[in-house]
Amino acid sequence: MKKFFVAPALLLASLSCQAELIGFEDGLSPLFTYSDITYSSDYYGYAGEDDTGYNSVIDFTGSKAHVYNGYAASPSDFIWSDVDGSFDLGSFVIAGAWGNQTLTIEGFNDGALLYSELLDVTREAFEAIFNWSGIDQFRINIDPNGYVHTAKASGSGQHWALDNIKVNEFVSKDVPAPAAIFLAMLAGIGLLSARRR
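^ PEP-CTERM protein-sorting domain-containing protein, sequence as received from the core. Prediction below:
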């Protein structure tokens, strides 16, 4: 009887998702398209001046590069480019470049707002946890009234730095992934062997 329940569980696991960590080591090549996610502000940076959120993100992640909202652009969108797909946003690493600020992070699916959360950031990078499911886009908005410049910082403005987006990528409805096909076949074999006994 146990074998009868194991096979369907394997089938369900095969249809769920594939975990992925999206970094920005490639800079502009390809142009901010990582794992079918496109970034609307098209700015990336490397380590620079000390005491900035830019460096804090790089130190936190161990990466060489990060993305940021050039010219303090708002909103900045991260869009899933697979029309039939969606993803779960687990987390990302973020810091305010020049000081403390309040951001609004929003999650959408097909243009409908599903999630909205206020996020207070400082120049100290941290991993912001979301665990949002079934979105095809997330957006970062700055609050023009929610910014406090840090005296040590040499620059100014409501810039933020971001790296290491953790997503669970749902496979497109149209094309099953090889791993999903393999696990579905394995589940079918399990069901057949359970019926023989």
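DSSP finds three helices and twelve strands in the chain.
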